[in-house]
Design brief:
single chain; about 600 residues; alpha/beta; 5-stranded parallel sheet; 23 helices; 16 strands; about 10% strand; disordered N terminus; disordered C terminus
Amino acid sequence: MVASNAKYPMPAHIRLPVAQTPASSPPPSPRLSPRLRYGRSKSGRVRGLEPPPLPCLQRFGRFLLSVLLRRHGVFLLVPLIYISGMLLYMGSVSPVVPAALQSFPPGSIYRSPEVFKHLWPAMQTTNESFGVLAAWQPFNGVYWKPCISPQQTLRGGLQKSSGFIVVEANGGLNQQRSSICDAVALAGLLNATLVIPRFHYNSVWQDPSSFGDIFDEETFINTLSEDVKVVRQLPDYMMERIGNNISNIFKVRVKAWAPATFYLQMVLPKLLETGAIRISPFANRLSFDKVPPQIQQLRCLANFEALRFAPPIAAVGKILVDRMIQHSAGSDGKYLAVHLRFEEDMVAFSCCVYDGGEEEKREMDAARERSWTGKFNRTGRVINPGANRMDGKCPLTPLEVGMMLRGMGFQNTTPIYLAAGKIYKAEKNMAPLQQMFPFLRTKDMLLSVEEISPLQKYSSRLAALDYTVCLHSELFVTTQGGNFPHFLIGHRRFLNKGHSKTIKPDKRKLALLLDKPNIRWESFRKQMQAMRLNSDAKGYGLRKASTPVYTCPAPDCMCLDNLKHFSGKLGQKTYVNGTVIPYEDARPYHLI
């Protein structure tokens, strides 16, 4: 036994410790419980110590989690799988929100037909006693009168010319008018000779008219003769120098609203060097707040005196005014003129939505693509019709104009001249306006076919007719911004002692009011009459720094009519060179 033990040594963890005294016997092993039998499974685990089995769902969850833990890359795919599943689900299931639960910001939806249907019974029963003659409140303040005295006349005539200026006017009638007047001012600033401006053909207006087709060239040249030299075309020697090609003239690039110093420092040296310069296009290229006062007066001289319509247009315009006066015999020959911009191109350009549904959408999309190819489909461009309406940028419909005027208190017998192009869906949209104002007239209604046919195909010449009738009206209503009302408001101020006699509605407030189908007639009338009184209060106004002199001619081109009641700076006008000219010495304006 001893040898055997030495040959096969006992492992250390089994050896008994060596003691001085014999070891005591170990305690007896406990009896096995009959309920728990220990043994080993094939995997080596002790049977009887295993936990109870888990439900199937938990076991599957643990299995899936173990797989994900072993393969960490799968975690990158889980979010993508989840998002893709949600997108597929959302694409297949479109949420349907009941119309009653949809919420739109106030003033963002066109509801005017509903408002009219609600208010029409009250309109019919209201006995209005308000007419054109009572439109303006008596005014006891300061009146103004036209006074134009450009500096060139005061210096004793024209100086030697610096060269020729050739400009190209673009846009419609009144944008061309702006370019012409600015060109006159520039020629005076540079002491240059102005060539009668050329008109750029516009794809929207589609009018090939030249300067002489719209304006009286003879009057234009003669009126400016003491201040700016104007010629119909370049002289022969200059045409030979440029090879009889206008495009060979040195073209000057000018940023919008450039100050006078830019032209004096950058353009004048080139003009003296080459003898002629060309600026194309020439729209909004001369600032209003950084030019000498005499240049502002040159603008007024060109706009209010030199630019008269050509004889064929002036003759038809006079016929229109005379017939409107006859039509207004019940109001002492006074009539109201409304400038309505609800032509198809205007509605399309505004990107506003009315009540035409899918048909309207198709027509407006086609009109936008036809006149402004690709402009409204550019990447990143966001069109929000509701926001446009809330911001007052949507053209007023004939229906809205009628409700506004009736709310302001005008009788249904008020004579109205409607200045407009071809109204979009005229038969439908004009019906309610004519229902509210049966004495409404247009140029097509007042003129015979023979009288209007020579001008029919020319949009600028037709606009000139509207301009003439609106200019001589007792009250002018503008419904949309643009050059037409801006020039007309200034011209009316020039003729009406400084008052524009114009109603300019607050279209943001109108959008809110006309979005209330249940609004009360009394409440609507109160708001409209406040709007009319506000326009009356703003009829007088002095020009601010950046405001065009064509819209606010005072005090640059008008002087105080009751000068004896004032003293100091109000009674004189100081020019840049220090010369002081009393108002009474300024050349008076001869009314049309």
